[in-house]
Amino acid sequence: MPAYFAYYRVSTQKQGASGLGLEAQQAAVVSFLKGGQPQGEYVEVESGKKNQRPQLLAAMAAVRAAGGVLLIAKLDRLSRNASFILTLRDAGVDFVCCDMPDANTLTVGLFAVLAQHERETISKRTKDALVAKKARGAVLGTPANLTDAARQQSLLVRRARIQQDPGLRQTAAFISSRRAQGVSFRQLAGELNALGFTAPRGGTFNQKQVQRLLDHATANLPIGTN
């Protein structure tokens, strides 16, 4: 049996921490290996639309070094971007999907195109629904006339989320420390991405996300609201 290296992807930090989605993928891998365990496991927390995958790159490097096989629970866990899947297929790394172990080059390509079509269809339905809602007079986004109490509650919720999430606390502490050293938000985004930090909603950091996370973590709240 070749050396199998499992790659899992979850869409949010919450899913990664709770095991939602991840446990099902791990169970599919163990079932495929008939109760065995992969030689290595790599977990990515990111949106399926984005192709920056440090854990996937690490898994591919391990596969090449061992002459092994990349094992994925479901094809759509890899990506819903057809060109990304096809590029990986042509990169010289053997990979197999537990939900279609007998797939060949042709079927993987077809499923990749279908997965991307599904994502685009979902996106279009969501946009159409928002347009229809706006046409009925609904106010989309965050209203500018929120009360101070509502804004305060929103800030409390966001800061509490950071305090309760070890990963976000670590990220916020790193940002605060580097800002004290005079590092710009733009440079910080690059450093966070290079070090493998994940943005709160998955994916890589940009300048605005870094600033927003720091604002939420260090917001001045009235005494007694901690």
From TrEMBL:
Q: What is this protein called?
A: Resolvase
Question: What residue stretches are annotated with the Resolvase/invertase-type recombinase catalytic domain?
Answer: 3-137
Q: Which organism is it from?
A: Hymenobacter ginkgonis
Cite the InterPro entries for this sequence. Answer: Resolv_N, Resolvase-like_N_sf, SSR_resolvase
Superkingdom to which the source organism belongs: Bacteria
Give UniProt keywords alphabetically. DNA recombination, DNA-binding
Q: Which Pfam families match?
A: Resolvase
Keyword DNA-binding part of the UniProt annotation: yes
MF-aspect GO terms: DNA binding; DNA strand exchange activity
Checking PROSITE patterns in the record gives:
RECOMBINASES_3
